[in-house]
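Researcher: Next sequence.
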Amino acid sequence: MPRSVNHVASRARRKKVLKLAKGYFGRRKNVWTVAKNAVERGLAYAYKGRKQKKRNFRALWIQRINAGAREHGLSYSALIGKLSAKGIELNRKVLADLAMNHPDAFKAIVDQVK
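Model: Next structure:
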C-alpha cells in the first residue's frame, strides 16, 4: 500500500508560518526550519510582552501619581493610604491622568484627603 501524505495540510501549515515570518531578515523569512524557530520565539516574546506591558503601565502611573502628590506635600504611599481610608475609590490609571492632565482636579482630591 502506498504511503499517504497530506500535502495540502502540511503546505498550508508551512505557508501560515512563513506568512508570520514576513519581514524577518535573511533565511528567517523563507527557510522553513529557520522561520519556524524564529516565529515560535517571536510568539513567546509577544506573550511575555503582553504581561510586561501591564506591569510597565502600572509603574508609570505610580511615578506620575507620586510626582503629583509630592507637589502638594504628600508621598505616593501616604496619598494612597489616605484615599483608601477616606473611601475614595479611584484607580491608579485615573489618578495618574488627573495628576498629569488636570492638576486642579488632582489638587482637589489631595485637599480632600489632607
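Model: The chain has one domain: 8-113. The longest helix spans residues 32-71.
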